[in-house]
Design brief:
Keywords: Acyltransferase, Transferase
Family: Belongs to the citrate synthase family.
Mean pLDDT: 96
InterPro entries: Citrate_synth-like_lrg_a-sub, Citrate_synth-like_sm_a-sub, Citrate_synthase, Citrate_synthase_AS, Citrate_synthase_sf
CATH architecture: Orthogonal Bundle
Structural class: mainly alpha
Distance between the termini: 66 Å
GO molecular function, one term: citrate synthase activity
Bound molecules: N-hydroxyamidocarboxymethyldethia coenzyme *A
Oligomer: single chain
Pathway: Carbohydrate metabolism; tricarboxylic acid cycle
């Protein structure tokens, strides 16, 4: 694979950079940690390095240094589509280089050749009651693939033979496992969808189509070229959001114990399934429909909507799709989806309402200064787009998010192995220890 060559070429320089920082500047202090940060979700504590992506509070995400509009513009596309091949995005995340068409296509072809899903994975899914949340099924399906981990078997094998597995080569097995897992995601996700909501169909992968279009085809949207474009857009923009969010941090932490890609990604997906993380997208479309219902199915005018939103906030309710832990501007991933919606489905009443909420809500949220970011995040619109194209099962949306996010998670994990990162082990304190520190600081103030 060209990806392996591209990474191998860069290895000495990357290792040199990290070694220099660790050996020459190992004791350099990066930031202080406050008691509030310790109790407040480690918010803002700079304890990770992520070269895959970086979230600037005022600019939004950059993937390998490129903004969302740049990524959408520069990545290779399939003839006839204005939206990127996910294979090209993966090449960029993994190698830190923009791919040409052949390089993007090679990743897509690799996925096609690795897409066969073992029968037992379908059986595992079928064992669960049909009303099981699709994220649970997604996570167990990934776990069911774990016995095929090349890293796990190679690692176990070398423990008992004279033939060693050099630490510097671990990443190649992690990359192999990542490629094998990602290749199967359209088949797994579509089967979960078909099992729960359609006809239980298992559809085989078509090498003629790209990864995104394969997923669309597998859930019965072979003819819907616009939906296939939406999938390309969705899978590219949800792929990564730095290393500190729950799913990225979880999978990276698990992989630091040399747990393989399957174990690590399933753990990440369990984090993504939380209502404060990936589950938020299903809440947003539900909320949009509820607002319309409150107005007899219509889209309320600005004044009516303002009153309604104020009443909700006064009642202590959260407005889903607004706010962010890091961002302090409108999420560019909201913007590109909103542009897609305005271009292709502007007459959809849910999109009309989302546009109106975008006009009136930010100043209201900003009024009392409590909400740090009064602007929409990525989830404010993605469910409404799926809903328009007929994917109306809200609880499935987080699986779509998960398919995309695994692209980023695996890039972080593989690079963790490339750079030889050790097992993570932060240190705990007791409340009594913090109280002692507090006492000491009081005494020194009194002196
Ligand atoms: N509506 C009403 N109140 C909100 C709000 C919203 N959309 N967003 C934040 N607030 C409130 C918080 O509840 C908090 O109130 P209290 O102090 O009374 O608890 C206060 O404003 C300060 O919160 P914050 O510091 O601005 O936001 P946080 O960093 O704590 O939380 C969240 C960020 C995204 C979790 C939050 O804004 C929220 O719950 N938004 C709605 C749910 C949502 O859209 N989630 C998806 C986020 C995108 C994502 O990461 N997806 O994976």
């Amino acid at each position: 694979m060209k990806m392996i060559e591209a990474i191998t070429e860069q290895l000495p320089a990357w290792r040199e950079r990290v070694n220099r920082l660790r050996t020459q500047f190992g004791s350099l202090k990066v930031c202080d940690v406050t008691v509030e940060q310790i109790y407040g979700g480690i918010r803002g504590v700079q304890i990770q390095v992520s070269d895959i992506s970086y979230v600037d509070p005022y600019e939004g995400i950059r993937l390998r240094g490129y903004t969302i509009p740049e990524v959408l513009e520069y990545l290779p596309k399939k003839p006839g589509s204005d939206f990127p091949l996910v294979g090209g995005l993966y090449y960029l995340l993994m190698t830190d280089r923009l791919p040409n068409e052949a390089e993007a296509d090679e990743v897509e072809q690799e996925w096609a050749s690795r897409s066969q899903i073992p029968e037992h994975v379908y059986q595992v899914i079928r064992q669960f009651p049909r009303d099981t949340h699709p994220m649970t099924l997604f996570s167990v399906a990934i776990m069911a693939l774990q016995p095929s981990s090349q890293f796990a078997s190679k690692y176990a094998e070398q423990m008992f033979t004279s033939e060693g597995l050099p630490k510097g080569d671990y990443w190649k097995y992690y990359l192999e496992d990542s490629m094998n897992l990602i290749a199967k995601l359209p088949g797994i996700a579509s089967f979960i969808y078909n099992y729960k909501y359609r006809n239980e169909e298992i559809v085989s992968y078509s090498p003629e189509l790209d990864w995104s279009a394969n997923f669309a085809r597998m859930i019965g949207k072979a003819e819907d070229l616009r939906y296939q474009d939406l999938c390309r857009l969705f899978f590219v923009i949800h792929s990564d959001h730095e290393g500190g969010n729950v799913s990225a941090h979880t999978s990276y932490l698990v992989s630091s114990a040399l747990s393989d890609v399957y174990l690590s990604c399933a753990a990440g997906m369990n984090g993504l399934a939380g209502p404060l993380h990936g589950l938020a997208n299903q809440e947003c479309i539900r909320w949009v429909l509820q607002v319309r219902e409150a107005f007899g199915g219509h889209v309320p005018g600005k004044e009516e909507l303002t009153d309604h939103l104020r009443r909700q906030l006064q009642a202590g309710k959260l407005i889903p799709g607004y706010g962010h832990a890091v961002l302090r501007v409108t999420d560019p991933r909201f913007t590109v989806q909103y542009e897609f919606a305005k271009k292709y489905i502007s007459n959809d009443p849910n999109i009309e309402l989302i546009g109106r909420v975008f006009e009136v809500l930010p100043p209201i949220l900003a009024e009392n200064g409590k909400v740090k970011n009064p602007y929409p995040n990525v989830d404010a619109i993605n469910g409404a787009l799926q809903y328009h194209y007929g994917v109306k099962e809200f609880d499935f949306y987080t699986v779509l998010f998960g398919m995309s996010r695994i692209l980023g998670l695996t890039a972080h994990i593989v690079w963790g192995r490339i750079l030889g990162k050790p097992i993570e082990r932060p240190k705990s304190l007791t409340t009594a220890m913090l109280e002692q520190l507090a006492e000491k600081s009081l005494q020194s103030l009194e002196r």
